[in-house]
């Protein structure tokens, strides 16, 4: 007596059981055990459903098993007369299935028990491996957060960052939120964020226009001298060209976040201007993100506000060259919020 594959179980993993001479069953795998309906057990043990039902009643009546621990009510979808019908059905776990098998004295019950034990062992081992991997990912993210804390604490002592203690704490809080350590640690690797793809290409002449306009406004406000934005050699062309570097036909910084972070870093650290490198780098960073629709969150809030950007600029200026990757990762994670 074969069980037709006519049921779609909505929740839980479904594994297939097929013995050499026995039935073909869709077996529900959930809560570290397997589950069958009375109809499926009837097919497995080659007995009527009424016989299976009678044995189950006696198992509970005699106290061999507790009903609440071995039976679950799951929702299933069945095809009946060309229609799809959704209904609930009682499922029984492996303990109940084995107990019924002993009572009906069915050899197929032994075969099913051996198969189920192998499936469960494999399932548990796989689950342990996945959880172990998730734990390692979480530990790695905590380690990265600790590194960021240490890095920011160390840089906060730099004279350039004097009086920026509160902003550094706010920056760290924003950074830690982007890691989603508590409830999403298994969904995304913490490292260099590579999410967005920008269509707008920043070239040298567009960058020059932006800096010229900023310079005009700052001079009007008496917040800059004529030295602001004056090029110091070919550094600006080099910084912009660097974010579009390729290797073997592939972009070195393929994502919007990487390009923006490196643009900010290169302009501040490479000093392409006689004066105003931090401000110029910040303005170009904002302009580049805005033109690529990557400046704002969905709620309209800036991903990196002015205060945070000021601190980031100072941090980059105070950082050592060997700390470049740390700075870039902080910026890309903040942009991924």
Short key terms for the protein model shown above:
single chain, 337 residues, alpha+beta, Four Helix Bundle (Hemerythrin (Met), subunit A), 6-stranded antiparallel β-sheet, two-stranded antiparallel ribbon, 12 helices, 13% strand
Your description of this structure?
With 337 residues, this protein is of the alpha+beta class. The chain folds into two domains: 99 residues; 199 residues, Four Helix Bundle (Hemerythrin (Met), subunit A). The chain has twelve helices and eight strands. The strands form two sheets. Strands 1-5-6-4-3-2 form a six-stranded antiparallel beta sheet. A hairpin with a 2-residue loop joins strand 7 and strand 8. It starts with 6 loop residues before the first strand and ends with a helix.
String of helices and strands: EEEEHHHEEHHHHHEEHHHH
Report the biggest beta sheet as strand number plus sense, adding barrel if it closes: 6 strands, antiparallel
> Stretches where pLDDT falls below 50 for ≥5 residues?
1-12, 128-132, 178-193
Ends distance: 57 Å
Condensed summary:
The protein has 337 residues and is an alpha+beta fold. It is 53% helix and 13% strand.
Any chance you could write out the topology, listing elements then pairs?
Layout: E1 7-9, E2 13-18, E3 24-30, E4 33-36, H1 38-45, H2 49-61, H3 67-70, E5 71-80, E6 83-93, H4 94-104, H5 107-156, H6 165-178, H7 204-220, H8 235-242, E7 246-247, E8 250-251, H9 256-270, H10 277-291, H11 306-318, H12 324-335
Helix pairs in contact: 1-2, 2-4, 4-5, 5-6, 6-11, 7-10, 8-9, 9-10, 9-12, 10-11
